[in-house]
């Protein structure tokens, strides 16, 4: 039986960006303290967390210090080093969730896809790429275009290159520069995601959200998604199968394609709270961040019901080059009923950098389409540029 | 127009108890930083706030340091010293909200009642008490019993003494020990409260809540209250009139009696977020804490709509004497769908001390009565005692 004390349990988090910050915000009401490790002094999570250890994500000394101060370790970035985490967990006795082995599986997209396919998770046809011939073979088998992907280090669409014809194979492979894989291009109706949680002997999932990307970066998430019930059910089944493959407790962001034929195919997995789950803070009975804290500590999971139609929109850096972050004209957001502002506390804005988000939790009678329209207006009304 | 930067504006808060803690939790998503001043090292707000200044609530040096670090000052306890705050605000140029003059008006219940009566706010009949004869006169005029109240320093019903007959007047007056006033005893149908906000040229109010007290300490708040529409409307009118009397921006907790005749009478005012408004965190489109941060900074106020029927229940110290705080059997709370735990981070539990609260935000089809029953079960299922 869980007993609350003061101070409460401490979560040690590798990474102190916006995910660490929102995790600390969600942990506080539960009496759970957060210490983050991040190389940037006074990182986004620092003002909200109990403390920050300033060290690189793979700095073993820093992570040992983090483990010594924490009851459980977790990470909010895939850049965490699985070997270091494994070693520290073993030596310190402080558990790490999700399991570092999961990080390893996910880190290499080819390994990830193979593990998932083996477990019966539906994935687009794919193959390893050793040379340009493999890409040409893929075009023969799947039809053009195909999607060439860097096996490691991709993020927000970086490292993904569509290949339109066999003639482009060599150039595409050079642009990826490193181990690669190739996938059939999915003709999708919409992109959706499931925020799923693996707890201590139980699992949970939030209702599916529909994701709108532009330049391969998430712009908006809409809940409920426009999918029909059968697709939602199938997406939740797939998420359940994905959790079976994942080792260790925590929240997983599972990005899926809903094909034009109504099939559900896996796109990518993040072994942590995910941008497409920020809507849960206001839109669901509990947030993905509270669930992650509960799961990592081995506490019971919370309810995941949708409270009302909800839309979240990212506030991205609309600048040509890096500069001090000053978001102008925020009044429209502050004045809009039921618009919830989340500012990530980053000092510098960069082109397309995620600087914050706005969630609108619908009030009676408001439809997702109306919310989306309002969210887009709000996003367009603010700017980081001086003019 | 408001511009967001990093670091964002800083609120300096006199007091770092649970109200300061929840204020810091609500301020973080807005990019607003909180520094608290509190004499207890590592006070409840400390782990969540940017920083704590360890100093007494009326320590002028400490408050000057707080003002120097803050863009605006506020307080979460009535123990704040109005003279010191006024002096520091004037010298530092850092504004204080609400105005310290409001603190002075509220601090003395007789002064408070006179100011409110003058402004047309309905209050129970009352008079100043110089000696026991004034109490006897009140019994003649209002009928027995009457309520004798200490003019200053009362809190959670401390300093309130019902006087059943003229023969008890002397003893009652001695027990109050200090300047006193006497009020007609109100035959109330229920106690209700309005959490009202005074912003920059605008006001807002949350839907009324029904409050259940026991031993003069708040146990539960239920929203919507059982009052009929006319009473709710009248309560919101009264709250609007109260805000007229109050000087300076911020949240005010306005406790009211709904009489058996359907009248609304003012009971007490807190110039700060109030225990009976904790339900707003999950139950309303914005929380009283977010509203307080917005109001003090002069930002636009947020929407106050009720999201779904909501009940909050306090977790009070169920111990006979002070000891290290260990709340046992928390699993029932963690496992209950839509139950939200708030742990205040106090190291010591004392008899009836407020240690945390649980809010249940109703899901579709759940009635306030069902939520209240669940909330009471949860409250009974946890304990600070060892057995």
From TrEMBL, chains A, B:
UniProt signal peptide: none
Query: Which keywords, in A-to-Z order, does the entry hold?
Result: ATP-binding, Ligase, Magnesium, Nucleotide-binding, Purine biosynthesis
Q: Which domain of life is it from?
A: Archaea
Task: Please name the SUPFAM superfamilies in this protein's record.
Answer: Glutathione synthetase ATP-binding domain-like, PreATP-grasp domain, Rudiment single hybrid motif
Pfam families in the cross-refs: ATP-grasp (PF02222), PurK_C (PF17769), RS_preATP-grasp-like (PF22660)
Q: What EC number(s) does the entry state?
A: 6.3.4.18
UniProt-recorded Gene Ontology molecular function terms: 5-(carboxyamino)imidazole ribonucleotide synthase activity; ATP binding; metal ion binding; phosphoribosylaminoimidazole carboxylase activity
Q: Name one GO biological process term.
A: 'de novo' IMP biosynthetic process
Its EC top class is ligase
- Which residue numbers delimit the ATP-grasp domain? 113-297
Pathway where it operates: Purine metabolism; IMP biosynthesis via de novo pathway; 5-amino-1-(5-phospho-D-ribosyl)imidazole-4-carboxylate from 5-amino-1-(5-phospho-D-ribosyl)imidazole (N5-CAIR route): step 1/2
From the UniProt record, list the reaction(s) this protein catalyses: 5-amino-1-(5-phospho-beta-D-ribosyl)imidazole + hydrogencarbonate + ATP = 5-carboxyamino-1-(5-phospho-D-ribosyl)imidazole + ADP + phosphate + 2 H(+)
Kindly give the PROSITE patterns that the UniProt entry links to this protein. ATP_GRASP (PS50975)
Q: Which residues bind ATP?
A: 109, 149, 183-186, 191, 213, 267-268
Checking HAMAP family in the record gives: PurK
User: Record's family?
Assistant: Belongs to the PurK/PurT family.
Q: What does this protein do?
A: Catalyzes the ATP-dependent conversion of 5-aminoimidazole ribonucleotide (AIR) and HCO(3)- to N5-carboxyaminoimidazole ribonucleotide (N5-CAIR). Catalyzes the ATP-dependent conversion of 5-aminoimidazole ribonucleotide (AIR) and HCO(3)(-) to N5-carboxyaminoimidazole ribonucleotide (N5-CAIR).
Instruction: Provide the assembly information.
Output: Homodimer.
Q: Per its UniProt record, what NCBIfam families does this chain match? A: PRK06019.1-5, purK
- What is the name of the protein in this document? N5-carboxyaminoimidazole ribonucleotide synthase
Gene name of the encoded protein: purK
């Amino acid at each position: 039986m869980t007993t609350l004390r003061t101070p409460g349990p401490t979560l040690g988090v590798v990474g102190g960006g916006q995910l660490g910050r929102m995790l600390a915000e969600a942990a506080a009401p539960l009496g759970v303290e957060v210490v983050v490790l991040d190389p940037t002094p006074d990182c986004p999570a620092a003002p909200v967390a109990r403390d920050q250890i300033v060290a690189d994500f793979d700095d073993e000394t820093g992570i040992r210090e983090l483990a010594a101060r924490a009851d459980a370790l977790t990470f909010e970035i895939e850049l965490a080093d699985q070997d270091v985490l494994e070693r520290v967990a073993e030596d310190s006795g402080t558990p790490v969730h999700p399991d570092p082995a999961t990080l390893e599986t996910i880190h290499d997209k080819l390994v990830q896809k193979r593990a998932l396919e083996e477990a019966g998770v539906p994935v687009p046809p794919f193959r390893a790429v050793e040379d340009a011939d493999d890409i040409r073979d893929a075009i023969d088998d799947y039809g053009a275009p195909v999607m060439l992907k860097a096996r490691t280090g991709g993020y927000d669409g970086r490292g993904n290159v569509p290949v339109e014809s066999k003639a482009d194979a060599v150039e595409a492979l050079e642009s990826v520069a490193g181990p690669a894989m190739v996938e059939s291009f999915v003709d999708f109706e919409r992109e959706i995601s499931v925020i799923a949680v693996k707890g201590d002997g139980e699992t949970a999932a939030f209702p599916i959200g529909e994701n709108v990307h532009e330049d391969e970066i998430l712009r908006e998430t809409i809940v409920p998604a426009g999918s029909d019930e059968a697709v939602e059910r199938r997406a939740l089944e797939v998420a359940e199968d994905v959790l079976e493959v994942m080792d260790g407790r925590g929240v997983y962001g599972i990005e899926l394609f809903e094909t034009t034929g109504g099939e559900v195919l896996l796109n990518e997995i993040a072994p942590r709270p995910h941008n497409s789950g920020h809507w849960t803070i206001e839109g669901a009975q509990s947030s993905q961040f509270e669930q992650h804290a509960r799961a990592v500590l081995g506490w019971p999971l919370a309810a995941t019901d949708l409270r009302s139609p909800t839309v979240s929109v990212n506030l991205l850096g609309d600048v040509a080059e890096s500069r001090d972050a000053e978001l102008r004209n925020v009044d429209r957001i502050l004045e809009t009923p039921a618009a919830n502002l989340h500012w990530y506390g980053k000092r510098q804005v960069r082109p397309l950098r995620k600087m914050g988000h706005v969630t609108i939790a619908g009030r009676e009678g408001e439809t997702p389409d109306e919310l989306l329209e309002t969210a887009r207006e709000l996003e367009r009304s603010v700017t980081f540029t001086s003019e």
